[in-house]
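Example record for the data management plan.
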Amino acid sequence: MASFEKALTKDLFDNLLPKFGTPRKQVPVWDEGQKMFLIGNYESAKGNYYYQGVRFCDNVVIREIVGLYHTWTYIDSIEIYAFNGTCLELVQKRDYEKTFRSEEFVRAEAEQMISDYCAGYLKSQGHIVDESEIRAQASAIVDGSFKSFLDPDFNLHLTRILPQLKA
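Corresponding structural encoding:
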């Protein structure tokens, strides 16, 4: 209990949620509602707001670029990265124009992108696998990436990928 009390200090909250005019320390921001880390944002010259979000599991990283236009939220692109030793490798990317963002849409697109990647790889290796098996695996991977970071069984070593995504 003593370590918990020491951790919750005024300085900690001032660093996480500083007063107006004071810069916030660079820490990954977890958005529980969208089940992803928010890693960057900017405002365009036209006044539209954009942000990047990433979610990941043991197998892949899914990056979304989202635009907020007036009262609408659009998905600008989805990227799928695979782990390649200690770095990430882009394996699928889709760009969208004026497509409304919803969790169902992102899940369906990510599943299709992972299925396409796996099917293409297997075909290039001369393997024939039932499409429904590939789709089931892709669905399980996407479900794993939508897991909450706040769950006690979330694999904390995966947070080491966040610095790679900022580069």
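Summary line stored alongside the record: The longest helix spans residues 103-124.
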